[in-house]
Amino acid sequence: MTIEAQGITPDRVGVSRKFTLIAAPLAAIAYPWTLRAFNIAAAEIVEPSRPTHLIFWLGAALFLALAFAIPLIGLLASFRLARVTAPTVAERRAELVALLVVAAPAIYTFLGVVDFMTNSPLPDEWAFALLWALLIVAVVASPDRPYPIASAAAAPATLRVAHGVAAIAILAVFLGFHLVNHLAGLIGPDAHRSLMKSVHAIYGSALVEPLLVAALLFQVASGSFLAARHLRASADPFRIFQIAAGVYLAFFILGHMNSVFVYARSWSNPPIVTDWSFATSEAWGGLIESGWSNRLIPHYALGVFFVVAHMGAGLRMAMIGHNLPERWANRAMFGVAAAAALLALAIMLGMCGLRLDLV
Ligand code: HEM
What we know:
Shape: globular
Transmembrane segments: 21-42, 54-76, 96-114, 126-143, 164-187, 207-228, 240-264, 300-320, 332-356
Strand content: under 5%
Structural class: mainly alpha
Helix content: over 70%
Order of helices and strands: HHHHHHHHHHHHH
Distance between the termini: 76 Å
Largest sheet: none
Radius of gyration: 22 Å
Bound molecules: protoporphyrin IX containing FE
Mean pLDDT: 93
InterPro entries: SQR/QFR_C/D
Low-confidence stretches: 1-11
Number of strands: 0
Keywords: Membrane, Transmembrane, Transmembrane helix
């Protein structure tokens, strides 16, 4: 059978075509080095009297922006690949890998903690590069035959409702308090610590904590199932954004639980108190100065952004489901995403040392 007969145009099988399929995971390989370059430039900023101060300042800003650009490249690649109406197997796999690129910051943090705990001889940036290299090979080796697209991939209604109800419970019992608690870091570590003491009494109790952990794991499992269902058909950018945010959250939630419950509270001897000092890597010099911990800047920032924006995408679907004009639903989602970005920025500025003088 000719490639035209299989529904594939010749320009979709060449070397350049393959390159566009793997551009996002290729960019992901650079992620740890953008952070390393940021760290080197940021270390020079602390000497404002030096004539090169401005150059290093701009360099640090540029490299941090490049680190954030990598998940954005993954998102744009997923949008493009999800729009293909009759994709090949290679294109469909490239779409899945591009969605993983969105989660690169959370994957790199998770990998870094596991690498540290296992005392791995393979440095985490190389383990990370190996992961993307394997995924690139998997895409390149994939056939250019048509992928069997499902005509209707409706997600089971009961699971959708359960995912939504669990989200409201998590928001009410934990997430709302947790985000406000991190915002208090803008006032100072003491404000963060004393607020944490009060809110931890709610979600950290012997009764609530196991239920919360179960609810978060349920979100990962149910969300992954729903995402897999939606990915069987082609999807619009709104749906892809919701799925990409979910993929990020899956790695973020599992990595966060590993850091707090396994690494800090069980593996470390003596156990590490998981408070402000732990979150901001005080013992290692802080989020900007520490060569390991500056990965936490994009990791946390996107964690806050995606968890709120993902719910904004859910709000959009709910508004459309209630027959409200799509235009309104889109605006509501953009509004929530903009608020999510501002919230993430405010929390990160506090964690990186900015203080609001409220007295
Ligand atoms: C704390 C974690 C999470 C929260 C708070 C959350 C919240 C939500 C909310 C509020 C919705 C809208 C529900 C509805 O339309 O009824 C939703 C939908 C969705 N979530 Fe999550 N989610 C979380 C984690 C995840 C994860 C880890 C994934 C994994 C990929 C995921 C994937 C999805 C998908 C695919 C949908 C669309 C469901 C559909 O319309 O069929 N979510 N999420």
